[in-house]
Task: structure prediction
Amino acid sequence: MQKKLINSQLTNYKTYLMVLDDMIELAENVYEFKNIPENIDIGYVNKVLLKNGSIAWFMDEVLGLIALPYDVNNGFDIYGRPTSITARSYNGRYYRRLNQGEFIIMYDNNRRLSLMPKIMQRAERIAMCIRTEDVNIVQQRTPRVWKTSKDKERTLKDMLSNIDGMMENVMAYDNIELDDINTVLAPAPYIVSDLDLHIEKEWASFYRLIGICSVVEEKRERLITDEVAMGQGGTVASRYNRYTPRQRAIDEINKKWGTNIEISYYDGVPTSIKEKRGDENVSISESVSTSWL
Result:
C-alpha cells in the first residue's frame, strides 16, 4: 500500500514538472530580438528575465555588451531602481561591480517581479486536473469487493492472483463459496470530458498571463471578430505589461552604446513549406503575418 502511495506521489510530481516545463518554454519564447550582439545569449536572457524578473545589461571592455543577472549592493533610488549592483555569470567565475549609469536594467514586466510564482500555481492546477483524469479513467474499470473470513484470506488472494494473471483454469477449495464472496460496484461517473474543458480554460488563463491569444468557447461554434477582440483585452494588457519594459530598456541600450537592437512579439508562423503565389515562390513564414487577434 505504501509503495503504491509513493508511486502515485512521484507520478503527481512528474506530471507537475512536465506541465511547468511546457509553460516555461512558452513564457520564455514569446519575444523576438533582432541585431543582438554575438556575445549576448538571448535564450539565457529570457530565462533570467522569467526567473528573476530583471537582468542587467552593461559594456565589458573585453567581452563587449553583455547581459547578466545581478545582486543589489547599496539599495535603491526613489523609484526603486538599484543604484549599485554586482553582475555575476552563470559559472560563478565572472563578477563585475557597477555603479548607476554603467548599467541598464531590463525588467520582465512592469511590476518588476518574477512571473514564476504565478506560472507554478497554474502548472499545479493543470497537473492536478490531468492526474484527476488519470484516476477517473482507471475508475472506469469495474471494481470488485471480495468478502471472506480471516482464515480464508490467503486462499482468496491466491485465487484472485490467478484471475488477474489471466489464468484459464483457477483452482478453488470446497470451503470457498463463490456466490458469497463477490460483489460488483458501479464504476465512478465519467468526468474526463468536463475536465478537458476545464484544462483548456486553465491553459487559456496561462496564455493570457504571458500574452498569447487563446479563445475557449464552450457552446457557440463561431464568434464574430468584435467578440474575439473584446475577449482578448486581458491578453493585450498582459502583452504590453511584458513588452513595454523590454522596449524601454532596448531604447536606452541603443542610445547609450550605439547598438541597433530590435524587439517584437512573435506573430509569424515559422515554417519551411513553400507556397505558390502569383509568379513568386514565397515561404509561409514570409507570407503569413497575424495581428494580435
